[in-house]
Design brief:
The complex is a heterodimer of chains A (about 300) and B (about 290). Helix content of chain A is about 30%, strand content about 20%. Chain A has about 300 residues and is α/β, with parallel strands linked by helices. Chain B has two domains: about 100 residues, Elongation Factor Tu (Ef-tu), domain 3, CATH 2.40.30.10; about 170 residues, Nucleotide-binding domain of ferredoxin-NADP reductase (FNR) module (Rossmann fold), CATH 3.40.50. In chain B, β8, α3 and β9 form a beta-alpha-beta unit.
Amino acid sequence: MTLDLRVDLGRGLLLPNPIGVASGTFGYGFEFEQLVDIQRLGAIYTKGTTPLPRDGNPPPRVAETAGGMLNSIGLQNPGVEQVARSYAPRFAGWRVPVVVNVAAATVEEYVQCVRVLDGAGTIAGYELNISCPNIAHGMDFGLDATAAARLVSAVRRATERCLVVKLSPNVTDIGAVARAVEDGGADAVSAVNTFVGMKVHLGMRRPVLPGRGTGGLSGPAVKPLALAAVARVRAAVRLPVVGVGGIASAADVLEFFVAGADAIQVGTANFADPGIALRVLDEVADLGERMGLSRLTDLRWQAAPQPA
Amino acid sequence: MTLQSSDLRRARDEVGAVIAVEELDGGLVELTAHLPHLAATTRAGEFAQLRCGPGPVPLLRRPFSVAWVDGETCSFVFERVGEGTRRLAAMRPGDMLASLGPLGTGFTVRKGMRRVVCVAGGLGCAPFPLLARQARALGVAEVVVLHGAATASRLYPSARFVRGDAAGVRVVESTDDGSRAHHGLVVDLLGRELLADADVVYACGPNPMLAATASRLRHGLDGSAAAPVREASLEAPMGCGFGTCLGCALPVLRDGAPGWALCCREGPVMPIDAVDWEGLRALPPAHVA
């Protein structure tokens, strides 16, 4: 039996394999391009891109925790115009699909970003970031199912490209938000963005991170939380689910497929090991073959029906 | 002097055996490992991201200046300030060490420089042994290392700056408590005579020491221009070390306007006049582990 690694995220976005790299951990690919063979990846989900350039938050912006890291970067990025004008042409020579992560404050701004990027020829799709915990109003759409549906349907009308919506775990019912974005016309969802967390400097009697003192927690510490979120999203929608949260090995990847994922993103692990996503890809292919799988989704757990 | 962004194409992830872990006085540790790529390519002031254990604790690598290169080996100087450095210090000869490097922008060392002055506060000594050798190899007549520490035992041994080049490298020490040499701050040693014919001043150490050095170079010499090249090596809590996570922002001035620069790409070595020293002072102390 031959293992088929391809993943159809919808609307013509066919990933060559399920191993992507998460927004905010891979820039726009240009640094990693100098270090590893990024063309073999399943997809690059870019840094969150906003209508205007952003300088980002004051430092310190990162803090390590037990098995994880907090970040409060504040969506530092060059703005959508530069991404469309200068970066997109560079993607043209790449085999790897580039999904541009888009973040904004209003429905109109999201639509405007997508329109600008639609004018650039070499973008595979969009990941709507409705879940950034580190800027004012960054999670407004991600925490409210009605607002999320309204946003997604507006962006849906603006583009024919594949629309992935990145969900926030900082909600009571992630399944409800997932259903809302499915109803709004999303092609896929990614689950999950970072968890709001805090590290305290006891000696200084204050949080390590400035401002509100909180940041987004990622890394192996969040993997069980992310797996649970993926399972809840899987139970709520029929859309492809891109799992993300603490993945650092082939076994982690397969666990996300058991929980209900159709593809995954390697995130924080890229920082400590720039070659890790490619190594995970090779190991997943090898492991899947040895397990006799024809598709990784064959691993999916069929949850017993739960009482309401 | 403007900020430069580092070239990542020289960086490589390599794994090599630890050769030695030496305990120096005052809690300093010098670790030497077989890292041929780093040894062949690094320039003074650049750094490597070292993996301190199999993970997930500590999760991220730690950045270290390359202190010395000998053949195919590289040495790093540090003290135990957190879990990462504790684990590195506990390594034994034969243990395998992963290094990604060289990374960052190093010191500007050019042919034609005659006298080089290095200001090293505490562990800020780390990049200067290699700098002294690379400067001498480029024909610099004299490298003066001003090295200060809190107390005598915490001074990096002066012989390790010199390393076989006693003729061209001079070390002048200070201690905050007066237990050896000059009683006072290392920046006190940055005197007029020394600066009069210095082509360059490099500084590395805690932020207040760097700020004092910057201030002295700018204001402390009756307005006369001292040392056309002035550079400082800074640090910041770092995620990736190669410009992707955007975590290690430092306050800088670009054409006089305040902004951020990444310590890992446009630093760690920056032109002293490009650093926003007021902005840096306003930040909470870096919580590095």
